[in-house]
Design goal:
Length: 255
């Protein structure tokens, strides 16, 4: 029986590279997109090119009826024959402005997408995993700002910090069912969200980082594949920071 992964927002960036990496590691893949259907079809083609099955669905976590929107996880699991891995990657990184000027509507939009949507997708996948009785892995893509604040991003930081703690609670509650839950907290990655999708990160200078460059989505996907594998069988409730050393510089600046 094939192993099955669902990767939300796998039409570009970290999600697309994670779907491709998982397919190369033997997983059939459920692919979701919000607006970029063409990107999702590119991901599907890459999955099929390495001999794995794929299914594509639209997932809109800005939908006012979020519980209904998250039903896409059940649709993909039914189409593929189950779910062993969920990569909760869908989210928004839009700047939201200063705390004093932030509207409740904007606050709610970011929290709905980054936290409520991740909660609902994880809950649906976890229920499937519990019913199947074979364990599973849930990987939440948070951000380095799960751990350190950023001015002008109160909603984003709150959503990613909340998802980080939700990861730990899920890890505790789901461990008896053999389900491991971990987070990956990327720093700056060259993706559509950062406006550098088509730029080689090796050509971008970041003098404030120890590694002096942003990361590539493939460098996050490699860690997704590791946490999805049995090589990470003793890891749960962890948040793996992959940020080119950004947190080290934050610590140095505060000393």
């Amino acid at each position: 029986m094939s192993s099955i992964a669902i990767v939300t927002a796998s039409d570009s960036g970290i999600g697309q590279e994670s779907a491709k990496e998982l397919a190369e590691n033997g997983f059939d893949v459920g692919i979701t997109y919000h607006e970029d259907e063409a990107g999702a079809k590119e991901t599907l083609a890459a999955v099929e090119e390495v001999g794995r099955r794929g299914e594509v669905r639209r997932l809109d976590l800005t939908n006012p009826d979020l519980p209904k929107a998250a039903h896409v996880i059940d649709e993909l699991a039914s189409a593929l024959g189950g779910v062993d891995i969920l990569v909760n990657n869908a989210g928004t990184g839009d700047p939201t402005g200063d705390f004093l000027e932030l509207s409740y509507e904007e606050w709610r939009r970011v929290l709905d997408t980054n936290l409520d949507g991740a909660f609902l997708c994880a809950q649906r996948a976890a229920r499937r995993m519990v019913d199947a009785g074979s364990g599973g892995r849930i990987i939440n893509i948070t951000s380095v700002h799960e751990h350190i604040p950023r001015t002008g991003a109160s909603a984003y930081c709150a959503s990613k910090g909340g998802l980080g703690l939700l990861t730990k609670v899920m890890a505790m509650e789901l461990a008896p069912y053999g389900i491991r839950v971990n987070a990956i907290a990327p720093g700056e990655i060259s993706t559509p969200m950062t406006g550098a999708e088509d730029t080689d990160p090796l050509t971008i200078e970041r003098p404030n980082l120890p590694l002096r460059r942003p990361g590539h989505a493939r460098e996050i996907a490699a860690w997704v594949a590791f946490l999805a594998s049995e090589k990470a069988s003793y890891a749960t409730g962890a948040s793996l920071v992959v940020d080119g050393g950004l947190m080290l510089m934050a610590a140095e600046l505060s000393s």
